[in-house]
Design brief:
CATH superfamily of the largest domain in chain B: Response regulator
Structural class of chain A: alpha+beta
Strand content of chain B: 5-15%
CATH architecture of the largest domain in chain B: 3-Layer(aba) Sandwich
Number of domains of chain B: 2
Oligomer: heterodimer
Shape of chain B: elongated
Helix content of chain B: 55-70%
Largest sheet of chain A: 5 strands, antiparallel
CATH topology of the largest domain in chain B: Rossmann fold
Radius of gyration of chain A: 71 Å
Order of helices and strands of chain B: EHEHEHEHEHHHHH
Structural class of chain B: alpha/beta
Largest interface: A-B, 30 and 27 residues
Number of helices of chain A: 16
Chain lengths: 576, 206
Amino acid sequence: MLNKLDNIGKMSGAELQNLLLEFQTRQFELELQNQELRTVLGCENIFFEKFPISFLMLDRKGNVQRINNIAVNLLGCVKQDILGATLSNCIHPSDKVPYEHYLEKLAATPTTIALNLKLNRQDGTIFNVECHGYTSITDDKEMSMCLLLNDITERDQREKKLSDRVKQLEDKIRKKADHLTESNAALNKTVNELNYSRHQLLEREAKLNSILNASIEGIVVIDKAGTIVSINAAVENIFGYVAQELIGYSVNQLMPIITRKKQDSYLQKYLRIFIPQAIGQIREVEGLRKDGSLVPLDLTIAEFPLDGIQYYSGIVRDVSARKRQEQQEKEHLEKLAHVTRLGLMGEMASGIAHEVNQPLSAVVNYTQVCLRFLQNENPDLVKISEVLYKANQQALKAGQIIHSMREFVKPRKIHRSTVDINDLIYDAIGIFEADFKQHLVAMRFELTKNLPNVFIDQVQIEQVILNLIRNSIDALKDLPHFTQRHLSVETSLSDLNYIVVRVKDNGPGLTEIQQEKILTPFFTTKASGMGMGLSISRSLVEAHHGTLHFNSKEDKGTTFYFTLPTETPANGRIKA
Amino acid sequence: MAESKPKTLVYLVDDDFFVRDSLSMLIEMTGQAIRCFESADDFLNNFDPDQAGCLILDVRMPNMTGLELQEELVRRDFAIPIIFISGHADVPDSSKAFRAGAVDYMEKPFDSDVLLTRMQEAIQKDLDTRVLHAEKRKLKKRLSQLTPREHEVMILVVKGLSNKEVAKHLDVSNRTIDVHRAKIMEKMDAEDLAELTVMGMHCGLI
């Protein structure tokens, strides 16, 4: 239209008229456009100021050209101060370099670029913004940069909170997971342990079973009602049942019929009374075998609770072999005793025979001598009477031996009386006068005067004294000729108020071996002895509540001594 | 007893005084000398081996028993006849005694006459044995006086070979044998061939 103006001079009025009309139309259009623009501009201003977005426009150098109030509020600055200035005062020192780079990048790029910036207000508060920027070229070819600032502090905080939360959750989950892993491991471990325990248990059970079944002792486990719960192999052997015939049945199946009569009441009594008493003890009982025979048993009972239920295990040992052996031993002992008695009789018979035959053969010889004397024409009667007297003495001696043997054998009755022990000794010694002379024994008495009396069987204690003196004489006879032969009898009172009688000789004494055996029956040091004297003497003394002992030293001599309680009201006549 | 040695002597060993007393009395009454001992040791220390007689011995005695004494005597090669007297006859004891050469084993009390008879027999046996032993010793002494050659000739002669046979056997002349034989008869104090033969028997040449 304007280029038409070049030709305006050449134009006709109509043409000019048209042109004018065109211009007027154009003007109207422009005014309309202008009005539209004003509206838009007004809208833009409203948009710029009222939209809740911080909005800045920067020039090429980064100086603020325009800033809306929201941005001023955001940045916490004075609008007049910031206009024409850069934002550097508002940017946190750590973000200044990235901001410079950002602006350069923004200038070179036509697209929108975003950047997170840390800003600080003048009051010192720090906050984060998301910066969206784009470059626009103005009409006057000036480049301007628009920055939209979005306060993301809250968002960040939210995000942070969220991420913290997420983190916490993750932590929680991780922890939970860890915990679960741990639990799982623990569980696995437990399972393994359980497996191991189970294995061990099985092994132990196998071992126990092998022990139980190898045991020669039968083991029966019953519950409180007397029902058999388990048995071992030995039970089968002892009673002749197999396990199936017993397990689940009452234990009284194994008890003798006689006790089964009152079965249940008995069993109850048995369970209630007998078992608690028998626990920990060995009882001899009888068991009933399947074949009806009885078997002697040693029974021990143990008690154990399992899952709150009381059980009893009875351990039974078949003692029939032992019983048999005991019986055999008893029979053997009886036989032995019989043999011993026979041997004793033989021994005694031999002893008696020898003891008696000595004086008897002397008698025979003496009388034969007398008979020969009498065959002479003028018999020497004095000589004959001498020899006859000897024969007489020897015959008496033989009788005495028989008598004393009978005393040994016959059952004794004690006839006690009050006796002065010294008197008894004097009386007893008289018998040995001839022996002392013949064997050149120097006899000495060392009797304490005024001793308390003893309450004794005179014959028996005399027998003891005679025996001891006879032994001493026999010992002294073994001494070489022309050796001084001493024999002494002493009496005294001991501290314990016992009468002590000592028979002491200086004979050859006893060897250690002899000392060990001297008091045992049938031991003798004499060729013709029976070995009965001392053991009988000792038993006689002990029957009087005394003791008989000896001291002996080889080549020095032997002392035998015995004690007797003195007469007291307790053992004296009062009681007798 | 000590001054004039009796022809025979009886030894009695018994530990019982009255047995010794009575038995010695009885034996002395027969005119037989007797010596008593109360133990085996006592006897062993005092007996005379050259004295003829017998031993009456108790079996059961303290220390050494009669049987042990018998063993000891056998060991000492003293062959005195023993009559055992025992208070209690015991078969093992008696058989042991007999095996060791006892002449008798009597149980006490015994019949005195029987004992005296046995005692006499035992003494006689001892005397005979002693004579025989003395004879043997005498012959052995004579025999020992022969030269080895004479001893050789004697063995052949008592075996019944004639002089000729002996000469031929020893590869010497008859004359030499005659000389040997005369010498033998002289040294052995033999009257004739029969006596020499008996002597040869006693000396164990045949």
